[in-house]
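User: I'm curious whether this sequence folds into something compact or stays loose and floppy. Could you predict its structure so I can see for myself?
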Amino acid sequence: MAGNNTREVQLVILTDRVVVPEASRYREWALHEKLYTMTLPAGYKGGVKPVVVIANRVEHLAPLVAVGVALSNRCAVDESDWAVGADPYRFERASRSSQLANEAMAELNQARLAGTLDQLVYAKLRSLLLNTGSERVQFSKDWEYAAPLYCCMTVKDWSDYESAMVFRMLGKARSEDSERQDRRRGREFMQVIHDGRSDDLLNAPSTNMVELTEKYLAEVLPLILPTLRKEEQVDLKQQIIVTPRGGRVTTGSEKSGHDQKRRSSRTPSLTALPAGFTAST
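Assistant: Here's the prediction. I'll summarize afterward.
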């Protein structure tokens, strides 16, 4: 069991990106591609964590959702639930989790045979299902989790959402010391994004780092925080600026006209975007 000071990520984010440098495997979104999204609340099919999926192929959504549901259910299962004499309720929940994992695997296999699931995405999702669940998400280094979390800590126009994002992502109130450490890590993360050093992060784009971060944030932020306040859209064509020592992220002062952005299916309209980021297509 995790210690009291251990912070676990409280949602499941799955994409059809594949970034495995050690195996020379990459499947990246193109800058011009439309993205498709779905969100599932905690409690859906017994899962304990909300699930967010984002894909550049609509036919990838169903396999991603199936795996996300299985992973969300597995988060509530402990190895002791399978022991002789275990609480019947917990054993039943563990059995249900195992069943959902098998169903997700069957869906992956069927989609691969039908040619509707990219083989690299298949390998990624299959690996997640076969994992025992003991590996924790390294939210401070994993690009897909860290980008939305640290955006709200370091980009001025999103600072009002910092507490809400931390609660949604990590589920705990922070001490002042943790807050300072989080913001320091956030500045360091933004510096890495600004410099394009993907080797320092997990699941990060190897090229077009800033542009793909912008594209991803435009989709994932309103999915994690669906009750964003309605306000005038900020121009996103300015560059991310981070001081050499990793100081406060600042933004330029020039603003241009508002461009209409093509939205993904099932994605709420994004009315407030961080200065320093450009909208994706």
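Summary: Strands lie at 12-15, 18-20, 25-27, 36-40, 51-55. Helices lie at 61-74, 88-114, 119-130, 143-154, 162-170, 176-195, 209-224.
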